[in-house]
Structure formats: structure tokens, C-alpha cells
Amino acid sequence: MFSFLNPGFLWALPLAGIPILIHFLSKRRLPEIRFPTVMFLRALEPREIRRLRLREILLLILRTLAILLLVCAFARPSVQPKAAAARAAAAVAVVIDDSESMGAMDEQGRPRIEGARERGLAIVDAARGGDEIAITTTTGPDAPLANRSGDRVRLTRTVRQIGATWLPGNVEQALERARRFLGRSSLRAHEVYVISDFQATNFTKGAREKVALLSRAGARVVLLPVVSSRVPNHAIEDLDPALRPGPQGKGLEMRARLVNHADAPSERLSVRARLGDALIGGGDVTLQADESRWASLPIDWRAGAGAAAEIKGKAPVVVESDVDALAGDDRRFAVLGAPRRLRVLRIVESRAGEPASRFTALALDPAQDGSGGYVVETGTPASLLGLGRSRYDVVLLEDIASLSSDAEGRLRSFLREGGGLVIGLGPHADLDYYGHKLFPGVVDLALEGTERASEGQAFEIRARAPAHPILEGLSLAVGSPLTQSRLTAVSKGRITSSRAEAIVTTTGGLPVVVAAQQVSIFLGSFSDDWGDLPYSGAFVPLVRGLVDHAARAASLESGDLSLVGRPPTAHLDTAPPGAVVVRGPESYRSQATVASDGSGFRAVADAPAPVPGFYVFEAGGREAAVAAVNPDPIESDLRPVSMESLQAGSPDPPRSILTVRSLRTHLRDMRQGRELWLLFLVLAAVALAGELALASARTVAP
Amino acid sequence: MAKTSQRLLDPHFVSKLARLDLRARLVVDGFLTGLHKSPYHGFSVEFAEHRQYMPGDPLRHLDWKVLAKSDRKYLKQYEEETNLRATLLIDTSASMSYSSHGLTKLDYARQLAASLAYLMLRQKDAVGMYAFANGRGELIPPRSTPSHLRQLLVLLERLEAAGGTDFASSLHALAERVKQRGLIVILSDLLDDTERIASAIHHFRHRKHEVLVFHVLDPQETTFQFEREATYIDLESGDRVTTRPQELRVDYRSRVKGWMDKIREFCVEKQADYVAVSTDTPYDRALLEYLSKRARLL
């Protein structure tokens, strides 16, 4: 639809009649000259006069047109794509991604959130009087931060105050808030602007479906990506709070999980561990493209604490790497404790007077002195009756036929207390018992007998999830063989829910290693009954991985891992003498709720941690514990979702606008239409130039 | 009358012409003696020869003395010195009334005709006059008496420009009426179809007349120096053309020049003399240039 934004100027349109008026006035007042003959003029008429008349008409048209165009240019002509959209006020929902990744810097050191704010302000600026605007963020509360366009000052202030948080974004919820807002509005025209870096990790399937839903509901969805092309993108994804003995039991080391999200190998990353201001350890790491792995960092504890005795306490350590685009994930906090030795109760059965195999015991504690980080105690199923969380961290069932109900009950209780469970099935295991009695409630895995390889053949087992902690001791890629050893039989299992994951499978797809919460299942045999796996180099790291996973899962469950946005949590060994107060960075202060858990007390702050850092739990005026709070590593991967995937499945696919300038043009088109004054001005100039050229082309003779 | 003569005949101009003789190039019929050789053996003053009487010859030319002496019939023949018989043809069509600077083309033609008449009468040539327009004309036959000048001047005084030219019809009609060969002097703007003009001149030449064409034009007709856009009305047909002179000037001039060249060419072709005069050209200069050229030709 064509309209004028300054229609007042259209009163000047009659000015366009001036050339016509002058033309006709001059014609009317033409002098009459009596001349001897006009035959020569007549003779010229067909060739010249007609041409001159045509030129005269052209000149008249050009002059009139020039004035018309000039007047129209001052009246600010504009075209609007749809009359309804242009005329009617619109309900506008603005979703601004304020997740941690929006703090990522571009090459000029400008965080993405600035670009997001700029776009948000452009939308607010373009609002008309009758528009309703709601602004919501991906980490915000369950209501828009601001709405109604009547108070534009407030809207502008709201947008200006939006900054990148330390929280992961929940785009799906933000879009749902937008949908609810639009649903409540009485206005018929609906617009949704999504300002984000469109991280693939944030734009989940649910978020994509919400976009399609909004589109299908008739809302005009506009995607405004704020991205930078800075390539390096690595992160410290996790820290193992437990110190470990160094190689050959010498010294200590801590483990940091590093990830390279870029599509190219990382540069040599320098990773440093600090205790306060003192550097206590570190190392250099190079990561392949898209690689995620644990790196061991040698720690010289005395450099920080000054005394080996400090190891026994809890020490807040910061691990940092070279900074890239997203600085927040290049530093991570951890409270390291004394070197942890996992206490493993290994349950075996001797059969036909033959002692049980000792492969797992040797794999975990070859020196039998706990120096490898594992203290292994071997027992029979009856030993489970004395099982307690205070005594053991992990139970390892090795080819046990079945458990008595008492032992099973004790084992389940142990799991509830946060203990870990590793099960190695084997030729003697009663699969019916495991599948139907022990596994329900422990791991969603059905067992369907034993699968044996053909005579003289063996199963080839491959890593299906090579980045899984169980396989962290093995450098594997997806689909690469786990070992060259021969595996002649496996228990035939079938995963029945997403809570269990096949980490290693045969080439035929049978699960060999299954991971679940607190539980690791090995569907082969830990002995040499079903092949020569115990003799391969992969056996030791695999067994340790299975035990570590079970123990770590227990640790996670106990809430030792604190994330920004969640209440800081700490484990207290003894009951606090009074109320527990939590203090943290940026003047954070909160009360904590204390409850008993299996191995002591668990203190949970009442308020969520707003930023990463150390949060100190004080009881009776004294420091009782320290919790390390880190951002959710999900925000580290900056790779965006493809716009095509967001535009699919909608009858009116969302439009993607890359630059602020294009956005302003789009908004102008939507609100006021596409302004054409410049075009009109240019056309007027062209008309005038044409008039001048035509007029100067006269054949004037002296 | 004297006043009319003074107005029509500029004494200064006439005194200039008096130094030159206007001599007819061709031998024409005439009764008066002059400077011109007649091709006819007429009956003038100077005896030439006798010839035998033939039945049908007029008896009044018999030499009665010879008849009395010898009883033979002889006719007396004289070699006469004849004068020029000139007829001044004046175009009085409406287009001749045009003037861009006070003097109309008709005024100019009128004065030029009076000058020529005076000149010719001084030479004892017979001068006639034919004022024509619209296919018709008023003829005063040529005479050489001095008093004839008055009659001519009276006619000239009466002339008024009106009507169309119809040049050819008028001249064809005159050509039929003027039997004796002589000089035909045409004073006109020749605004007619050039083919018809050529046909008329050819008619005179066919009857052995000497033809002299004074092409009288106003300077504006050749230069078209108008400045502003105007509606131009044809004085004869009333046709109107509105145009911008500055746009057409070059082409107009070119076309007028082509037209004049064409007239000049067919005049040359018909052995007629063509003199283009503008109403701002002094009479003396126009006549002197012409007479000088005639003198060179004789």
C-alpha cells in the first residue's frame, strides 16, 4: 500500500500545474504576426514542428513531473507490504537471549549482548502508539520484563539493562512466554522477534517447535541472529574435585575436562591451576577439532598451601586456560579435597573350588596398597549384608549368579545413599534374575540370553560414545575399535529407556558397556571366560572408567556440583552448631538449609548463585565448607543452529535478518512502509536533468 | 501630381539613373526611334530600301514618285531606330502589404516601378503597366509620351494590396494580350507555386519578350529574425501556424534560400534576368546593380 508520512506537503501538489498553466497562458497570449506566407513554416511542420511540439510536450511533462516528484518526496512517500499490517497496531513479543554465550566477544571485543540490545532498542524505537510490546529473556522470570508500548522509556530502560547472565538460556520457555503474551493481546497483528546467537544447544527441538507453532498461529516471526565469526572456542567443561596420585603413584594430579568446540584443532592451550594467587599446577593441551577429553594437570600443592598437611583440608582452586571468545568458560572453580581413594567392594564367587579371577582387583589396585587411587576389598555376596555408604563408594559385582533378597535390599539402600554399582555379567550370571529382579529401578536394561560368536570368530567391539567418562582413559573416536582382543560372547541386552546409554557396542549393535545413573554395566565377562579381554591394554582403563563413572555419578547425585542459577550446595562432615549462612561473590548472602545425608550433612543455600565463584558456608561464625559454583558448560558450544531448521515446517517461514540496518529497514517497512523519498528525489533530479538537456538541445541560430 | 511624383520618384535616385542608359537587349516592336536596332523594316523616318509591291501590301506605303516615273510599283521601306516597349508588372496581392520596418513590399515595388517608368520614358521608350492580383489585372498599354508618366503614376497611387496572387493566371492573361515583343518587368514577391511562375515566364519568353524579374522580399522573409513564439497568419490564405522562430530559423532560412535559388535557376534557364531585392535595399543600388549587369551583357 502506498501512502505518505507527511501528507501535509501534498497541499503543494497543485504547484505541479504551474508549468501547465504557464504553458497555456503563454499559448493564449501568443502574439499574432501577419506574415506574407506560412508555406515555408507549413513545409517544416511535418518534420520539425511535430518534433518541436513533441519536445515541448516532453518538456512540459518533465517539468510537471519534476515538481510532482519533489512535492511527493517532501511528503515522504512509503509503500507498505500489507495494508493490514501497516495500519493495524501489533502485539510485539521481543525475546532477547541473555544466556552466558551472549557474553561472547567478537573480534572488536564487543559482546554479543550489545548487538542484541541494539536490535531490541531498534524494535522499541519503531513501536507505534497502539502497539503492545513485551520483552522477555531466555533466562528471565516467568513473565515479560516489560510490556505495553505506552511507557517507551521503561521499555528502553529495560532493554538497556539486559546483560549476559551466567545462566544457560531456555529459549523454549521464553518463546512460550511470548506465545502467552500474544494470546492475551486483543490486537490481531502479532510479531515475534527472537534476538539470539541461536546456539544449537539452546535451540532444542522444543524451541524449534515453538517457533513453528508461533508461525502457524499467524505471528510474524523474525529471527535476529547476533553472531561473530571468531573461531577459537574451547572451554574447561569440568573439573574432577578429587586429587589423584600421579603417575607411578608419585605426586598428585588433578583432572580437567577440556573441550574444543571449533571445527579446527585448537592452538596449544596453557591450562593453569591457582590456589588464591599462587600457581599450583598446570600443563599444555592441544585439542583436535570437536574433541572433548580429560587432561591431567600435575599439582604441586605445597606451592600454594606451603604445607602438605593442607591437602587434608578443602582447597578452593581456580583452573584457567587461554581466553577465547567466551571467557566465562575458560575458567572453572573447584574445591579440591585430599587425594581420594575410591573404596571398592568387589563381590566374587568361587566355583568348583577354584578361586575367582582377580583381573579387576589387579586393574584397580595392582600394588594392593591403594596407591592407584582405589582401595579394593573382595568379598562374597554375603558381604553385601554389611554394606554401608560410609565404608564403600562402589560395589563391583563380578559374574555373580544372583543375590539374596537381603543382599539385594542392602545394595539398593546403598545406591539410594549415593553409592555406585558396577556389574560385570558373565557366563554364571542368572540373566533372568538380573533382567527381572535386580535391574528394575537400577538400570533400564532388559536381558535376553547370551549371544555367542560363531566358532572361531569373535565380536568386534567399538566405541559408540567415545567422549563418555567411562572411556576417558582410552583415546577413541566414534566407531573405532575398543580393543584388538577377542570377545567370544556377550549377554544380550536391550536398553529400554533413555536413562541408560550404550557406550560400547558390538559391530552388530549389541550393547557391551551400558551407563546409567550411579551404575555401569559390562555385558561381557571380567574374567577370561568369554575371550582374552583381561589381557588387553584396554582392560585396565575400561574397569577404572566403569568404577569412576559409578562413583562420580554418585558424587553428582549428592549435589556436590553447583551451577550458577542453582542454590550453592556443600557437604558438611559434622552437624553445624547453628544456622548456616552462605556468602559469595558480588555481596551474595543467603541462609542455608541443612539436612542429613548418608555420610554427613548436606547444606543447600536458599538463594541461587548469581555468578560463578566460591561460596563459603559459615556455621557459628566459622567456615564450615566451601562450594565451587560454575556456569553450565552447555553454553560453551557457540555453534549456531541452522536457520533453515528454524524456518522449516512453517507455512510462513520466519524471516532471518542479519544486520541492525536491515532490521531498521524491516521495521520501517512494517510500521511505516518503505520510504521512497530518496527515490522520488532522484527521479525529480533526473526529470530536471532531462528537462535541462532537452531544453539546451534547441537549434538556436544567430 | 507633382507631389506624387516627388514621393514616388526620388530626385537623387533619378539623377543617378540619368547617367546610365537603359538599353533593351532585344529588338522589340516599336514605333519610336531610339538606340535599338529593329528587326522589322517598318515605316519610320530613315529610308532603307525599296521592294516590289506584292498584292496585299498597304497602298499607303507605295512610292508614288517611282510609280509616276517608271510605272512600277515599289514600296518604300525604312530601317527604323525603335524604342523599348516595356511593361511593368506589379504584384498587388495581399502578401505585398507586408512590412517589417515601415515600407511595405508594395510601396517598394511601386517606387521601383515609378523609377523604371521615368527612366524608360526619358529614353523615349514606351512604358506600360499591369497591376495584377488574384488572377486579374489592370493594364495600361505602353506609350512613350512624357504625359504618359502621369497616367502610370496615378495607377501606381491607386494600387492596394489585396487578394491572392494567382501569379500564373495573371501573367498568362497578360502574355496573350501583349502582342508586340518588349521588356516585361515583373515586380513581385513571387509567392506562388514556382512551377506556375516558371510557366508564366516561359510564356513571355515564348513570345520573345525580354523578362526582368525583381523579386521583392522583406528582410524578415529571408532571415526570419522573430524572437518569441507567435502565431503566424498567412496574409493571403489566412492560414495560421504557431511556432517558435528560434527553433525553426535555420531550417526556414535554408528552405527560403532553396526556394529563391530555384526561381533564380529557372530564370536563368528561361534567359530571364532575376534580381532579388529586399525592401531595405536602396532603389539606386538595386537598379544600378541591375543596369550595370545589363550593360555588361550588351
Automatic annotation (TrEMBL), chain A:
<protein>
    <submittedName>
        <fullName>Uncharacterized protein</fullName>
    </submittedName>
</protein>
<feature type="transmembrane region" description="Helical">
    <location>
        <begin position="676"/>
        <end position="697"/>
    </location>
</feature>
<feature type="domain" description="VWFA">
    <location>
        <begin position="92"/>
        <end position="198"/>
    </location>
</feature>
<dbReference type="Pfam" id="PF13519">
    <property type="entry name" value="VWA_2"/>
</dbReference>
<feature type="domain" description="Aerotolerance regulator N-terminal">
    <location>
        <begin position="1"/>
        <end position="77"/>
    </location>
</feature>
<dbReference type="InterPro" id="IPR036465">
    <property type="entry name" value="vWFA_dom_sf"/>
</dbReference>
<dbReference type="Pfam" id="PF07584">
    <property type="entry name" value="BatA"/>
</dbReference>
<keyword id="KW-1133">Transmembrane helix</keyword>
<feature type="transmembrane region" description="Helical">
    <location>
        <begin position="6"/>
        <end position="25"/>
    </location>
</feature>
<keyword id="KW-0812">Transmembrane</keyword>
<dbReference type="InterPro" id="IPR011933">
    <property type="entry name" value="Double_TM_dom"/>
</dbReference>
<dbReference type="InterPro" id="IPR024163">
    <property type="entry name" value="Aerotolerance_reg_N"/>
</dbReference>
<feature type="transmembrane region" description="Helical">
    <location>
        <begin position="57"/>
        <end position="76"/>
    </location>
</feature>
<dbReference type="InterPro" id="IPR002035">
    <property type="entry name" value="VWF_A"/>
</dbReference>
<keyword id="KW-0472">Membrane</keyword>
<dbReference type="InterPro" id="IPR029062">
    <property type="entry name" value="Class_I_gatase-like"/>
</dbReference>
Automatic annotation (TrEMBL), chain B:
<dbReference type="InterPro" id="IPR002035">
    <property type="entry name" value="VWF_A"/>
</dbReference>
<feature type="domain" description="VWFA">
    <location>
        <begin position="83"/>
        <end position="254"/>
    </location>
</feature>
<dbReference type="Pfam" id="PF01882">
    <property type="entry name" value="DUF58"/>
</dbReference>
<protein>
    <submittedName>
        <fullName>DUF58 domain-containing protein</fullName>
    </submittedName>
</protein>
<dbReference type="InterPro" id="IPR036465">
    <property type="entry name" value="vWFA_dom_sf"/>
</dbReference>
<dbReference type="InterPro" id="IPR002881">
    <property type="entry name" value="DUF58"/>
</dbReference>
